[in-house]
């Protein structure tokens, strides 16, 4: 049993006479797979999920069993030893520069909430898990790309999105856990229809326009699944997969308005932009326990970045004025997509956890983690300016457990904390064109973050 | 009858491209939906997150529920069918007792309820006020997320519970910049944001052996859309276009207060009687000004409503199997006045008065009818000797729209114009669904 180095709790067990066996659990799992569940992604793609996982560099797929399993490997939910509730806060500050000048990338602050509810029916454990990241500023932000404005694509808007995941997991035999869920993202399509009177003299004060509006936030579903295997007392491994999603926005604006009551202005705008892409990804992880108080996790994650669609919006525009009381431009050209040329990446991770203190009332874990993420973006030689760089991230953390809290708390109370530092290696973008509107530039910087989490685990 | 059956079950079987606001209009959870949306005094599972979070504290077991519901509309204007797509969505919920010990034992129960439309997360279709629109039944369908905490005060007074809840809904904001650059090349820049809105609810329940009473308050739930469109260099010289603001309220549920009493004449029967007040008079309309000085459409002029509901449930058990049958009736009065010519408003919201002294009128065709709601439902529960249970619920509702004659015709501004007569609206709505619950 290497799932949890400190099994202070035991599964909520029902008597063996219960005969709702694995078939019922599998049916529930299948039902969840077939039904739309509630999950958005992205902040965890960038920063991970959960205080312990973040302190261990994300190298937890093989043995995660707390609420962060909702993101890292849903199979881990069934390895949980009892009901767990966790709440925490993450605060990350970017210090990113382009040619020595600080870029305006927002800090990232988010509330993290997690829950795991396992139940043992006969010899089979099933578990339900919820994970929520709720950013301070907004649930989600999408911004189309301005080609001529350098943007830190991986850090600017990708993290500005709610993450809400619901998963089910099952542990049919002692050494195997399997979990799955479905996530969805919400692309939008908006159609505006504008009519009324347009004034050209002081248009703000004298125009009388009306609008009707049709909008759809639709849903895209993508799967998440994984398993964990305990090979021996000192070795376990896990594999998890998350599906691909593309978040696109379309806005169609139609205007048919009278200008100064003597002419008719017709305007059509159809703009389509990809605001967010999440690549399919797979993580393979091993966790070793050479001695009972030491745990070493090794992991590699593959990201299918080469499938990334263009982030450049495409537009179609029609503008007409009848009679032509003023000159309006004709033959207006829109834009078309530009391939981004991203390549797949493999991200290695390592995490080490050591139990430094173990008494009847208190246990203290010390953690350290590291991962290297090579940038999927090529050097920006052409018209696009997606700024990114290879990233080295180091983290340290602790977990302090209070285990003697009965009768009020039959379980334990745990405080997890961590600090992390990401170094974005400087990279120089040399343009092919000597008359490029932006020109050559060098970009790099750091991210500093910290977080605290309170976890209550019941027997 | 065949048409009714098709509508009742079509929503569950057909791919959904739907318009509706299910939890407020059709209720939430198959047990309470089978009892005409009563439940303030007796709902104790995840359904309590919507009806009365205090009810969560009445749960002795934890549970997880997966379900589905759908509905179809048969709406008519002047005897002709008015097309409105059916809706379909998934219900997901759980309730979990927080297993503290000592003085906190059996005190806290957490619950969550989710409703996710199958085809869309948020849909809105806000059209010009003179176009006929069933403004309540065609309210957008959107994701509903409800969380609740039930607190048992049994140490203070056996049977007394209180609860707090919160519903979350998204507001959409953004901007769109369009224009021409120096090379006469068109460009556009969009930025949209989803902002969270949290709306509290609270309630209290008291239950004795033969009767129970519940009181629940839900705050106003509103989702807003606010998009600003700015054009740059589209017109020559110094000519500019105004900033166009797209404002809309795709989702609105009013403040509500519900009082319910339950009487159990025998162990087998439960009778629930509820009255719910909704503050529809605070509804300001679905669309705002397009430019800073544009006129506003006629005010919706909704009025508050009080909805009476009656639910009856029978329960019988044999060995480890329990069967429940239930039914209910509710009268849902419409908050909307009849379609009529109503004052057009200036940017400040005041009626526009012409130089002649006449008020400028615009047709307002926000359609709605009184509804008579009939419901049926059933539950089968299989108990195990260890205390776990598997439960299957089904329900169906029929909403009969009471015929209503409006003050203007369907298209013309007055009866008699081109032989037009005043518009008559009628129809019915069928809703059905199921839920599968595992409790331990």
Describe the model.
The complex is a heterodimer of chains A (459) and B (440). Chain A is mainly beta. Chain A has one domain. Chain A contains five helices and 23 strands. Chain A has helices spanning 22-34, 43-47, 51-55, 69-72, 203-206; strands at residues 84-98, 101-102, 108-121, 124-135, 140-143, 151-152, 163-173, 176-185, 188-198, 208-218, 220-230, 235-242, 245-259, 263-278, 281-288, 294-303, 314-322, 345-358, 362-373, 386-387, 391-402, 411-429, 441-458. The radius of gyration of chain A is 26 Å and the shape is elongated. The model of chain A is unreliable at 1-41 (pLDDT under 50). Chain B is mostly beta strands and 440 residues long. Chain B is 6% helix and 52% strand. Chain B contains four helices and 22 strands. In chain B, a hairpin with a 2-residue loop joins strand 1 (63-77) and strand 2. Chain B starts with a helix and ends with a strand. Chains A and B meet through helix 1, strand 3, strand 4, strand 5 and strand 9 of A and strand 1, strand 3, strand 4, strand 5 and strand 8 of B. Strand 10 of chain A pairs antiparallel with strand 5 (120-126) of chain B, so a sheet runs across the interface.
Short description:
By secondary structure, chain A is mainly beta. Chain A is built from five helices and 23 strands.
Keyword list:
heterodimer, A: 459 residues, mainly beta, 14-stranded antiparallel β-barrel, disordered N terminus, B: 440 residues, 6% helix, 52% strand
How many alpha or pi helices of chain A?
5
* Shape annotation of chain A: elongated
Globally, the shape of chain B reads globular
Q: Gyration radius of chain B, to the nearest Å?
A: 24 Å
Report strand % of chain B: over 45%
The number of helical segments of chain B is 4
Low-confidence stretches of chain A: 1-41
Compressed to H and E, one letter per element, the order of chain A equals: HHHHEEEEEEEEEHEEEEEEEEEEEEEE
Mean pLDDT of chain A: 81
User: Span from first to last CA of chain A?
Assistant: 17 Å
**Global mean pLDDT of chain B:** 86
Task: Report how far the terminal alpha carbons of chain B are from each other.
Answer: 41 Å
Radius of gyration of chain A: 26 Å
Pairing-aware structural class of the strands and helices of chain A? mainly beta
Reported for the largest beta sheet of chain B, the result is: 14 strands, antiparallel, barrel
The oligomeric state of the chains shown is heterodimer
Strand/helix succession of chain B:
HHHHEEEEEEEEEEEEEEEEEEEEEE
Strand order of the largest sheet of chain B: 1-3-4-7-8-9-10-13-14-15-16-20-21-22
């Amino acid at each position: 049993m290497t799932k949890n180095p400190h099994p202070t709790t035991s599964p909520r067990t029902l008597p063996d006479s219960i005969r709702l066996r694995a078939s019922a659990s599998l049916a529930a799992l299948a039902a969840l797979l077939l039904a739309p569940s509630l999950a958005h992604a992205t902040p965890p793609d960038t920063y991970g999920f959960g205080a312990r996982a973040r302190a261990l560099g994300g190298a937890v797929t093989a043995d995660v069993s707390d609420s962060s399993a909702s993101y890292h490997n849903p199979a881990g939910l069934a390895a949980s030893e009892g009901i767990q509730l966790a709440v925490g806060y993450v605060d990350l500050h970017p210090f990113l520069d382009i040619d020595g000048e600080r870029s305006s990338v927002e800090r990232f602050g988010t509330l993290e909430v997690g829950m795991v509810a396992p139940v043992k029916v006969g010899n089979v454990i099933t578990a339900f898990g919820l994970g929520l990241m709720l950013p301070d500023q907004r649930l989600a932000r999408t911004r189309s790309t301005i080609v001529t404005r350098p943007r830190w694509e991986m850090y600017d808007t990708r993290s500005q999105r709610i993450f809400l995941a619901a998963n089910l997991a099952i542990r049919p035999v002692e050494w195997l856990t399997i979990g799955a869920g479905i996530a969805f993202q919400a692309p939008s399509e908006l159609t505006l229809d504008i009519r009324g009177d347009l004034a050209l003299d002081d248009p703000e004060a004298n125009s009388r326009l009306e609008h009707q509006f049709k909008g759809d936030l639709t849903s895209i579903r993508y799967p998440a699944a994984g398993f964990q295997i305990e090979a021996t007392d000192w070795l376990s491994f896990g594999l998890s997969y998350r599906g691909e999603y593309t978040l696109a926005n379309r806005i169609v604006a139609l205007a048919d308005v009278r200008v100064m009551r003597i002419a008719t202005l017709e305007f059509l705008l159809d703009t389509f932009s990809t605001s967010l892409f999440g690549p399919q990804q797979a993580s393979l992880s091993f966790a070793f326990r050479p001695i009972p108080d030491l745990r070493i996790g090794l992991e590699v994650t593959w990201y299918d970045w080469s499938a990334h669609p263009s982030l450049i919006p495409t537009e179609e525009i029609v503008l007409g004025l009848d009679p032509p009381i003023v000159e309006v431009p004709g033959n207006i050209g829109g834009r078309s997509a530009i391939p981004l040329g991203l390549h797949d990446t493999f991200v290695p991770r390592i995490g080490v956890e050591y139990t430094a203190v173990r008494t009847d009332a208190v246990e203290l874990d010390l953690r350290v983690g590291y991962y290297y993420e090579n940038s999927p973006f090529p050097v920006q030689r052409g018209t696009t300016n997606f700024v990114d760089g290879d990233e080295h991230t180091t983290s340290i953390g602790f977990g302090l457990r209070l285990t003697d809290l009965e009768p009020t708390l039959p379980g334990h109370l745990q405080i997890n904390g961590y600090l992390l530092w990401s170094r974005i290696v400087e990279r120089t973008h040399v343009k092919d064109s000597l008359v490029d509107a932006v020109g050559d530039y060098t970009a790099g910087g750091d991210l500093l973050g910290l977080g605290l989490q309170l976890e209550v685990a019941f027997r | 009858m065949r048409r009714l059956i098709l509508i009742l079950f079509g929503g569950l079987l057909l791919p959904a491209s739907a318009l509706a606001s299910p939890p407020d209009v059709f209720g939430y959870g198959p047990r309470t939906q089978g009892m005409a949306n009563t439940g303030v005094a007796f709902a104790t599972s995840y359904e309590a997150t919507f009806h009365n979070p205090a009810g969560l504290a009445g749960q002795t077991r934890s549970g997880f529920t997966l379900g589905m519901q759908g509905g179809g509309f048969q709406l008519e204007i002047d005897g002709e069918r008015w097309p409105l797509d059916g809706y379909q969505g998934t219900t997901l919920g759980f309730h979990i007792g927080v297993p503290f010990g000592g003085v906190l034992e059996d005190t806290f129960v957490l619950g969550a309820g989710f409703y996710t439309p199958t085809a869309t997360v948020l849909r809105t279709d806000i059209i010009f006020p003179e176009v006929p629109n069933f403004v309540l039944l065609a309210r957008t369908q959107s994701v509903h997320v409800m969380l609740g905490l039930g607190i048992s005060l049994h140490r203070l007074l056996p049977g007394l519970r209180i609860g707090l809840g919160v519903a979350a809904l998204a507001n959409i904001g953004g901007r769109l910049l369009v224009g021409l650059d120096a090379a006469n090349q068109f460009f556009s820049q969009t930025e949209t944001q989803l902002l969270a809105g949290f709306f509290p609810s609270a309630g209290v329940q008291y239950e004795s052996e033969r009767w129970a009473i519940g009181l629940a308050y839900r705050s106003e739930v509103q989702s807003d859309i606010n998009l600003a469109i700015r054009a740059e260099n589209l017109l020559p010289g110094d000519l500019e276009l105004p900033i166009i603001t797209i404002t809309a309220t795709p989702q609105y549920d009013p403040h509500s207060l519900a009082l319910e009493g339950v009487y159990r004449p025998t162990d087998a029967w439960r009778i629930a009687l509820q009255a719910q007040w909704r503050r529809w008079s605070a509804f300001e309309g679905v669309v705002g000004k397009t430019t800073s000085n544009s006129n506003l459409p006629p005010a919706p002029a909704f009025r508050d409503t009080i909805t009476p509901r009656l639910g009856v449930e029978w329960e019988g058990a044999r060995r480890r199997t329990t069967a429940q049958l239930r039914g209910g009736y509710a009268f849902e009065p419409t908050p909307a006045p009849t379609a009529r010519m109503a004052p057009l408003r200036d940017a400040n919201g005041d009626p526009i008065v012409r130089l002649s002294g006449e008020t400028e009128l615009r047709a307002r065709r926000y359609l709605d009818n009184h509804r008579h709601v009939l419901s049926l439902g059933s539950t089968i529960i299989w108990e195990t000797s260890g205390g776990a249970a598997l439960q299957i619920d089904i329900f169906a509702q029929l909403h009969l729209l009471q015929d209503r004659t409006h003050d203007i015709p369907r298209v013309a501004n007055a009866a008699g114009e081109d032989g037009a007569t005043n518009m008559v609206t009628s129809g019915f709505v069928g809703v059905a669904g199921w839920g599968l619950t595992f409790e331990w």
